[in-house]
Amino acid sequence: MYMLSRTSGRMLRKGIVPNRLTSTSRPGCLSFGGRREYHPIVHTFDHAATWTAEAIASIHNAGLPWYLTIPLVAAGVNFTFRLPMQYYARSLAAKRNQLTPLVNAWAWRHRIQEFAAAPGKQVDSHARNLASLRAIRSSRRRLYRSWGVQIWKSFLPLTTMFPFVLASEALRRLSGVSVYMGLVTVGEKASAATSTAASALVDPSLTQGGLLWFTDLTVADPYFGLPLLCTAVLASTSWGSLGIDRIRVLVGAGGSQAGTSPMTRGFQRVLLAVPLFPLVVAHLPSAIFVYWLTSFSLTFFNDLILKRIFPMTKARLQPPNMGRSHVRSYLPASPEKLKKKQGSA
Hints:
The structure is a single chain. The chain is mainly α. It has a domain at 55-81 and 157-178 and 203-310. It has 13 helices and no strands. It has helices at residues 2-13, 40-61, 66-98, 100-115, 125-147, 161-175, 188-199, 225-242, 244-250, 262-273, 277-280, 286-309, 335-344. Helix 4 (100-115) packs antiparallel against helix 5. The longest helix is centred in the N-terminal third of the chain and has 33 residues, at 66-98. The protein is elongated. The termini are far apart. Keywords: Membrane, Transmembrane, Transmembrane helix.
């Protein structure tokens, strides 16, 4: 046993590695030979994308043309994942809208408390406003938590991005387009193995599966019509949900950002840049843009329908204006003012 350990150590120092050490028993581990295999998450996504591509191809093989198969897949993803999540997020927003009078009442109370905290002292107005804003945000979080409508729940619809990306990756594999910079595989051997498996999924019928000006679904749109349409639909959905006034505040063209959390402002700024994404990746196959255009259009119509189901009515109780011109003094007047008032009477 001692001689065996000495022999093994001598072999490792000389760079001689046994064959049984050149592979790993666990995915995602770096082997002695320097070859990195699949990460478990990438491995799972790879199998899911392959299964999705085979499912889409089976729908086409049932007799549907590609220009109907791809929108049908987008509709299935929409009604299975996106529409329920949009319904949930819209219902949360409607419940928060009903709590607005209560939130405004607490905001009024906090502002009055800050104004009355030091009646005879000179207090910095900026520091007083910051203190009142912190108290208002704390009360709003407490109220939202009590009614189960926390802000973080509004981000749950982002989970629908996984089936969206999965279907897009499946269409990319059916089109036979390579991934930039090896996003799916890592390692030379793993990349070669995956390229061989992905080439078996390529469907030549996609070259004649389109219509109008994009008959070949395996190449990019030569006229940039599909990317521009995707950008227009995305802009109408994301920018329309923000409103012109809110967009001006986010880009710094005017208005105040008081009353919104930093997380909400960051998410809204991301929404401003989202419509430009299809133009950045305009080199992708037309099959992906057909899927995106259908998916974005269905999201737009989902939003229109949900606005009718959950209309946002204006709050009846608005926060008061605590400006100096609207604040009346209830302290007794000075003797000089009383004499002038009596003399004029």
